[in-house]
């Protein structure tokens, strides 16, 4: 369902304010916190590098991956659709070859080529390279990845699942396409600032089993918090671009590609509290909401190319877990 944009009109001395003035005010209001963030990040990276990386290097043995298991994890991520430029090239876009512009409050960042092409993709990456990228947000050369790549969530994936996912990606057709630099102002286009961002916002996940909960609940938690990385879109962010833990999964006005991301906590009025488990499973299979409306935008893609390919027991586990999280009142609209 597409949401209309409703703009509030302010006035000064009784005179209506036009759209140009409103746009200028909005730009100024957004620039202030971003500049403050930039100053904080620059101060952090200016500190002598006595701090260690936010997570340890993970070493893996050259264990053969399981393609079927890797395909299941791939589906759980939503099919990695952010790496296919459907908005710019349509259904004929080369799968997973990158180039998709991901709009954020800090600029536009382009997704990378994750096909097994040896020059422009992941073809030369080892298992350890892949695990390090997913766990630490670091390239094989040690460069920081911008956090539009949700390694903050993927860091919770188990070694076995990462090895299987790498094997599955390696089995797909290679596409040669160079990656694009971000369209973002300094310092948000500078990878060195991400070191400071990680200090403030990144703690690698460790998703331990909760023995007091059912196996289905634990599976659902693992899928929602790590593989499906639901919080990366459905949790609002702080001024520094980190997730606001006080509103986990309660929706965001600045979701992926500038879209609204709805509240998916079980709040009865502003979330999905009225949805039953079968409703949630059906939605993740088809993209159809209980009232019959269909899903638009990026979510429709991740359902079509990802979640709809998961076994029903995984979808049921996701539904069980989502209905158990804290309900948070947060009505998501554009003012």
Provide a short characterization of the protein structure.
With 335 residues, this protein is mostly helical. The chain contains 12 helices and 4 strands, in the order ββαααββααααααααα.
Describe this structure in words.
With 335 residues, the protein is mainly α. The protein folds into 2 domains: 38-206, no CATH class; 209-335. Helices cover 37% and strands 4% of the residues. The protein has a two-stranded antiparallel sheet. It has a two-stranded antiparallel ribbon with strand order 3-4. Helix 2 crosses helix 6 (159-170), helix 4 (127-136) packs across helix 6 (159-170) and helix 10 packs across helix 12. Residues 1-32 and 41-60 have low confidence and may be disordered.
Work out the radius of gyration: 20 Å
Residue windows where pLDDT falls under 50 for at least 5 positions: 1-32, 41-60
- End-to-end separation in angstroms reads 18 Å
Count of β-strands: 4
Structural class: mainly alpha
For the largest sheet, list the strands in their spatial order.
Answer: 1-2
Overall number of domains: 2
What does the overall shape look like? globular
Our count of helices gives 12
Give the oligomer, counting copies of the same chain as homo and different chains as hetero: single chain
Mean pLDDT: 85
Give, in order, the helices and strands: EEHHHEEHHHHHHHHH
Q: Biggest sheet: strands, sense, closure? A: 2 strands, antiparallel
Helix coverage percent of residues? Answer: 25-40%
Percent of residues in β-strands: under 5%
């Amino acid at each position: 369902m597409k949401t209309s944009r409703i703009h509030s009109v302010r006035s000064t001395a009784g005179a209506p304010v036009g759209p140009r003035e409103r746009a200028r005010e909005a730009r100024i209001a957004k620039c202030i916190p971003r500049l403050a963030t930039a100053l904080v990040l620059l101060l952090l990276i200016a500190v002598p590098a006595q701090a260690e990386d936010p997570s340890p290097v993970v070493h893996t043995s050259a264990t053969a991956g399981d393609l079927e298991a890797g395909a299941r994890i791939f589906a759980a991520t939503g099919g990695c659709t952010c790496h296919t430029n459907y908005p710019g090239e349509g259904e004929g876009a080369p799968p997973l070859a990158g180039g998709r512009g991901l709009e954020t409050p800090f600029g536009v960042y382009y997704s990378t080529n994750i096909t097994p092409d040896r020059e422009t993709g992941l073809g030369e990456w080892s298992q350890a390279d892949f695990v390090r990228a997913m766990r630490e947000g670091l390239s094989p050369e040690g460069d920081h990845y911008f956090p539009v790549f949700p390694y903050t969530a993927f860091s919770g994936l188990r070694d076995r699942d990462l090895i299987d996912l790498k094997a599955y990606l390696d089995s797909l057709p290679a596409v040669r396409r160079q990656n694009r630099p971000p369209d973002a102002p300094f310092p948000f286009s500078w990878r060195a600032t991400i070191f400071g961002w990680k200090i403030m916002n990144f703690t690698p996940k460790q998703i331990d089993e909760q023995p007091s909960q059912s196996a289905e609940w634990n599976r659902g938690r693992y899928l929602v918090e790590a593989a499906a990385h639901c919080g990366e879109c459905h949790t609002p962010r702080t001024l520094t671009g980190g997730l606001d833990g006080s509103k986990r999964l309660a929706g965001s006005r600045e979701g992926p590609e500038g879209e609204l991301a709805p509240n998916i906590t079980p709040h009865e009025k502003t979330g999905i509290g009225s949805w039953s488990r079968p409703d949630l499973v059906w939605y993740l299979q088809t993209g159809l909401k209980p009232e019959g409306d269909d899903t638009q935008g990026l979510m429709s893609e991740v359902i079509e190319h990802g979640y709809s390919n998961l076994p029903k027991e995984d979808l049921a586990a996701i539904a069980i877990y989502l209905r158990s999280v804290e309900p948070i009142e947060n009505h998501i609209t554009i003012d």
